[in-house]
Amino acid sequence: MKQKITSLExxxxxxxxxxxxxxxxxxxxxxxxxxxxxxxxxxxxxKKVEGYIKRLRGFLNG
Length: 62
Known about the structure:
Oligomer: single chain
């Protein structure tokens, strides 16, 4: 389904996606760099990103 969104909504969605992308890129860099990594931090970060994306999806669904 396609729908028209305002530029404010578009900026909001883009900003949120960029933020989650940055979080995931930082997590990936940390995982690639470290010999031993904190699984609690990794799981927490993934849950945080998942929550933000879920809320963003709800916003888009109206």
